[in-house]
Amino acid sequence: MLGLKLATDPRWVTIVESNIEEILTDHAWCEQKAASNAISLVTYNSELEDLVTEMLVIAREELEHLQMVHDIIKKRGLTLGRERKDHYVNELFKFMKKDGSRKDALCDRLLFSAMIEARSCERFKVLSENIKDQELAKFYRDLMISEAGHYTTFLGFAKKYADNIDVDKRWKEWIEYETSIITNYGKNETVHG
């Protein structure tokens, strides 16, 4: 479970199946935000060549995922709705440390990113194993694998660029915090909702 302490109840998929257009729209915007996050990491850390190179790969992959979700939406005669707020991500954002050095801020931003990828990966796994729609089951299985790769990339860079932070200890704090907020989610037809 990627270190996550609380698994998504598979009954969440029943909620998702009640409004496929909503989950696909929300998912599309999640991919857009993930691409934007990777670009932001490039913008603020342009001197870190290896990070820039890998974040550009991730940004491209996230945009490809956005295109894939949009293609499914069009194929099904559905409409990409307006962007939604992601309350889960906003709550995670509040936990990020805002003080310390640039490297400290980078480390926490990478852990924030890893947490989002970990939960998305876990949700995609639940979808792939429980949704009745076989096309979407395969789609979410493939994306689950990609999200797991992004999760490990973010964690790896956090460990590489941490100066005065015990990354393993801080990651445990992130997991505890995420466990405390995820109990409020899993009730809506959104990726994190």
Describe the structure in your own words.
- InterPro entries: Ferritin-like, Ferritin-like_SF, tRNA-Hydrxlase_MiaE.
- This is tRNA 2-methylthio-N6-isopentenyl adenosine(37) hydroxylase MiaE.
- Pfam families: MiaE.
- There is one protein chain.
- With 193 residues, this protein is mostly helical.
- It has one domain: Up-down Bundle (Ferritin), CATH 1.20.1260.10.
- It has 7 helices and no strands.
- α2 packs antiparallel against α3, α4 packs antiparallel against α7 (167-182) and α5 crosses α7 (167-182).
- The model has no long low-confidence stretch (mean pLDDT 94).
N-to-C SSE string, H for helix and E for strand: HHHHHHH
For the biggest sheet, the summary is: none
Beta-strand residue percentage: under 5%
Specify Rg, calculated over alpha carbons: 16 Å
Annotated CATH homologous superfamily: Ferritin, core subunit, four-helix bundle
Shape: globular
- The total strand number stands at 0
Stated plainly, the CATH topology is called Ferritin
Total of helices: 7
Structural class label: mainly alpha
N-to-C span: 18 Å
Low-confidence stretches: none
Pfam family, one: MiaE
GO molecular function: tRNA 2-(methylsulfanyl)-N(6)-isopentenyladenosine(37) hydroxylase activity
GO biological process, one term: tRNA modification
InterPro entries: Ferritin-like, Ferritin-like_SF, tRNA-Hydrxlase_MiaE
